[in-house]
Design a protein that fits this description.
Elements lengths: L1 H4 L11 H16 L1 H15 L3 H25 L7 H4 L5 H13 L4 E2 L2 E2 L11
Antiparallel strand pairs: 1-2
Length: 126
């Protein structure tokens, strides 16, 4: 799934490169980093204490994760079955964001087992 899923997510044909990169930064900050940041901050707090800026990072990332967790309940109505994978989906957010980054950075040249050459700059499909 991770291999094929990414080719549909980068919207390369629909948005400019600058917009793609701005969206990637936004996605990483809002969805990809809260869980790893909270884990890192918890480890740091248990070993060295926590500074004022670390407290602020904890509050911001906790709020972002809280919003995500609060959205699970209304989203659950869109699914026939909500098993443990649905309720724990927030744990996969960093991996999903990483896959979107990879699909944006690496231009896939293969689809359904077929490999495609990069179009030359003057060709109509470029």
């Amino acid at each position: 799934m991770l291999r094929e899923w990414g080719r549909s997510l980068d919207l390369r044909q629909a948005t400019s490169a600058a917009r793609q990169w701005s969206d990637l930064v936004h996605l990483a900050l809002v969805q990809g980093l809260p869980v790893p940041m909270l884990v890192a901050l918890a480890i740091a707090a248990s070993t060295t204490g926590i500074s004022g800026s670390a407290r602020l990072l904890t509050v911001v990332n906790g709020a972002l994760l809280g919003v995500h967790l609060l959205l699970l309940r209304p989203l659950s109505r869109s699914y026939d079955r909500q098993g443990p994978t649905f309720w724990l989906s927030w744990l996969a957010d960093p991996l999903a964001v990483a896959r979107i980054v990879v699909s944006t950075v690496r231009h896939e040249r293969q689809w359904r087992g077929r490999s495609y050459r990069r179009a030359s700059p003057g060709s109509p499909s470029a």
